[in-house]
Amino acid sequence: QIKPFPSKFLWGGSTSAYQVEGAWNEDGKGPSVIDMANHVPEVTDFKVASDHYHHYQEDIQLLAEMGFKAYRFSVSWARIYPEGSGELNQKGIQFYHQLIDELLSYNIEPILTMYHFDLPYALEEQGGWSNRKTVDAFEQYAETLFDHFGDRVKYWLTINEQNMIILHGSSIGTSSQDSENQQQDLYQQNHHMLVAQAKAMALCHRKLPNAKIGPAPNIAPIYPASSKSEDILAANSYTNIRNWLYLDAAVYGQYNHVAWAYLEKKGYTPVMQEGDMRILQAGKPDFIAFNYYTSQTVGESTGGDMDYSHTGDQHETVGEPGIYRGSVNENLKKTEFGWEIDPVGFRTVLREIYSRYHLPLIVTENGLGAFDQLEEGDVVNDTYRIDYLRQHIEQIQLAITDGVDVFGYCPWSAIDLVSTHQGSSKRYGFIYVNRDEFDVKDLRRIRKQSFYWYQKVIANNGLE
Ligand code: BGP
């Protein structure tokens, strides 16, 4: 007997500030690392994006029309603190006040990500996350958000995909500035983020007893490339390094021992200040949010060479000489962008996370990037997206039937926005935004087929 979705299930969708808002230098916003990064010339930059900053009312009205119960968005840190810390930008505060009020006027629950890749550039210039002072800046920023929005925002996410920032940081604007020991420096940044996150979680609980807060990593099930014991061991190593390092620190306030042994072996261990472990212990999450797109497959790596193998054109370059190497999973189909599609892996990972941490789960990203076609009469027939989402929603329901506590699903993305790596032709939304890679056109909003389909799913509290 398949269990139904819980009656208060948070059906929604996700975006992030730099990918959707545009208005990159308006109303006092400071530059972020994303704005200042060397941009690939072939794809859209983030200056205008979907211009949600000026269209948010229209956009939220459309989300309400779909029946959204929740909307997960991020606050641009550099809109609140143009210099990263110090002087507050009232216009930035004002914008998010309006956005939150607009959501609440439709009974849409705001789910607020505090930091989604777009570190204020002023902080980066002082060393970014390598500099311990960024922890203090984040704490000040977190407190400001709690003070201004804590009366209306119940669900808080700390850092989006911290594990991806560390494992693939160079493409997200937080690459290491220390050329001598880049990897050690990245794990130093990671440690600072863990401390910052724990402080924010503790502060949230002190200031807002009714609020709930959690981390939002990208979690994938890791498969061994074969049933060979060495491949299984490699998959286990990678799971600990990629997934549990981050969640163990967030939930248990401890470094995962397998990941720590790896850091020691490689000489990457972070320098800690006295009391850091107590800080990690003191800030605990109320739930785990995570993003899921695909699984990963790895086999053993015997080489000490830099043979960096990777999984085709999937966005992860996976490999650690002597430990694991990425491998293609021949059993899975791929998206137009080469990402393997694995709905069953979603159920596996929901089970894995829940059995490991016993905390309620919310999915904060999941979706399909594709080249959508705008047809005559403003039609976007994105049946491939409907298929992808349907298959994943089916697996959530099976996981719920397995006993996993899942309280929300916010696919990526609520509305078309600019992809982190591949411009605005790679679309994820339920709502089409009429723009090209370089021509922003009229930015008109168009309901895709998936919009009408998801509207029914929500109205039905699940699939037919
Ligand atoms: C996640 C990020 C999002 C989003 C998504 C899709 O890693 O949290 O910001 O970009 O991936 O990735 P892409 O835009 O590269 O297709």
UniProtKB/TrEMBL annotation:
What InterPro entries does the entry give?
GH, GH_1_N_CS, Glyco_hydro_1, Glyco_hydro_1_AS
Residue ranges crossing the lipid bilayer per the database entry: none
Active-site annotation: 365
What GO biological process terms does the UniProt entry carry, in alphabetical order? carbohydrate catabolic process
Molecular function (GO) terms for this protein are: beta-glucosidase activity
Regarding protein family, the annotation reads:
Belongs to the glycosyl hydrolase 1 family.
Q: What is this protein called?
A: Beta-glucosidase
Native source organism of the sequence: Gracilibacillus halophilus YIM-C55.5
